[in-house]
What we know:
Radius of gyration: 23 Å
Low-confidence stretches: 4-16, 23-40
Structural class: alpha+beta
Helix content: 25-40%
Number of domains: 2
Strand order of the largest sheet: 1-5-6-16-15-10
Distance between the termini: 8 Å
Amino acid sequence: MTFTKERQKKTLAALMAALLAIGGTFMSAPGTYAASNATQTKDPQPAYIKADVTIIKDGEILNFFDEKGDRVYPVFFRNRTYLPLRAICGLLGEEVEWVGAANTIYIGMTLSHPSKQIIKPEESAFVKKVSDAAVGVQTLAKAYIKEDIYILRDYDPVVFTDPAGETQYPINVGGTTYLPVSALSTFLGEEISWDGSTKTVILGSREVPKEPEKPAVDKDKNIKKIAALYEKQAQLYNEATEMILLISTASPEELSLLSAAISEKYRIAEGYNNDVKNFVKEAGGFTGDEKLSDAETDALANLAEFTEFCEHYLLVMENMMYLAAEGQDYSGFAETFLNFALMTQSAMDTTAKSLEAIL
Length: 359
């Protein structure tokens, strides 16, 4: 069972972007990503599509594809190699989402999937293992430097630099967004090397690592119960968050349906919260006389906080959605929504970390 990894505290940038996505009315503050003072290079610059370059990761030859299923290739720009954004996310096994209202690319935790979703790289539609090295040719293309695009990974800003310390921005070539190959080094902490004799970019080791055998472990029933309660609550949180993001784009009829759906999810959240409270009572509460181990008690305490915050988070959502359905201004709930979004996500991540430690 895989849980969300603990991340650092949300930045104001990510929260401002989230409010933009749901139609919030916060004003921009200095240093945030809600509004950009940066510019992008409007005039195209020459780049080279390198269909003759082979990409190898851990001994496996890789080909890349876009969302349409069309083959895409590495790009050589300003003496640096760039890889398609979706290919990089495929290698990471993480979600990617573009939010135009905030000029922001989300990697890992996104607005639509605020709880990190792990996709096995071998299951990615954007990366495929092949047996043969690249045999194409180099072609000239136009690249647009996108200085006004912000990149957040798990809601934290990411900036790429070259060895000289110069910022490397995303580029757009033929409608596809590319990141410097150094992004993979930043994200994965792996060495990246170039073999000029074979025109090969090597990510990590040339040798294919062997998968260690995982012994079967029978987990304690209390841990299993805590994990099951967490999974249900996390799924409810994700589903509700995806629905609230539609508040600024849905039609009146759709808003009415969404209001009813969120009301139902709020009732479910109340039930989950009661389930956790009953489990706490059965376990002896948090008075020092618990029937659980210290690690189990810690995980259960975190879960109790998560379910409590999630119930309040959904209540705020319900009020916002009903106001929107009636054509009324719901911006007065923006600050409350922001606070509960922050507390709920933080509690969920803390619960996930405490479960990872004992599973």
